[in-house]
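Aim 2 progress. For McrA, the working sequence is reproduced below.
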Amino acid sequence: MAKVLDDSNLTIQEKMIKVITEYHKAKREMFKDHPLGTLVRHKIKKSLFKDAELDQKIYHIVGSVGQGRWAEVPWISVFIKNLTISATRGYYIVYLFNADGSGFYVSLNQGWTYFKDKYGTKLGKEKIKKTASMIREKLNTIPKNMNLLNIDLKGKGDLARGYELGHICGRYYDVSNIPSKETFITDLQELLITYKEIEGLIGQRSIEQFNDFILLQEDGLYMEDTNNEEQYQLAVQHFIISESVKNTYKVNQKKERPEPIYYKGGQKQWTRNASLASMAMMLSNYTCEIDDSHKTFISKSTNKPFVECHHLVPIAKQDEFQYDLDQLENLVSLCPLCHRLIHLGRDEDKEKLLKKLFDQRKDQLKRIGIEITFSDLKVIYGCQSE
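Predicted structure tokens for this construct:
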């Protein structure tokens, strides 16, 4: 039977030291109702709320030494309730105890499950690490002593690896050099300010919407707006489409409308896939689909005539269509002059280009569920000519 731990008069950092120094011994004892589990799950939680003066209406704290058996890495997490109350998703502060008993970390971290479910284990590891790096670059309130870039929990399991990959910022406490209670609590309070900055970055979005937004360009996706147009066209130039990739794309198939991306204020926007646009340019043999004799310059990236990709039915109108507008059938290759003309030219000149492209593509568009008349297309482009 486990010996009852006398921890009633311990300070918060002394309780943390007790966990790290006595955990290995506890793991050789019965798991159920072990006093060390009570210390992690309840007593440290109570001390954190009291010493850091945390509002229980705003924050949620959970401690764990495992479920049904001892965990390799015990942990204690502090959550902003509005963001998440689960270590499997979202962003939170977590105390992580090294598997070898050498010390513990305080880490601003993120849930691994979202990335694993969306991308699979292998690619998910790359995505969560990239997200941590990108968020770190956006933050302005990281405390000077919390700029540790990587953590090593000395563990072998998936849980330890997930925490290591999800780490954004934090610091390490060596078991032989734990700071005072005041410093320990100050560290938490300062890191909470950074945590709240993440809450501000997320805004009105869900965690999933925020993560999708962060990884947009990493996933080869670009918003359809003026600010992203040049980046999108440059990205299109850099994708090299192999014959094997080309052959995997299924043409003439309806594809359900994707989920939009959300800005901080909750406004939604649709995205374009740069690799798909690159394929469209390749299929056009890098010529202008208005007139393949139109001259342009040689692109440094492709070593082919420079052309740009254009959605005949603009992505901005995705809300009005049941099926995906970002498909090869809706992508046309244009020389820079024709591309500018179709956006900025006189109505009568725009209409001539639109009519030619519409006649070329209307049957293909219909096969993938994009049904539109030429009159409606003219309205979308603001053409007033009769």
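The chain has two domains: 12-205, 216-380. This observation will guide construct design in the next reporting period.
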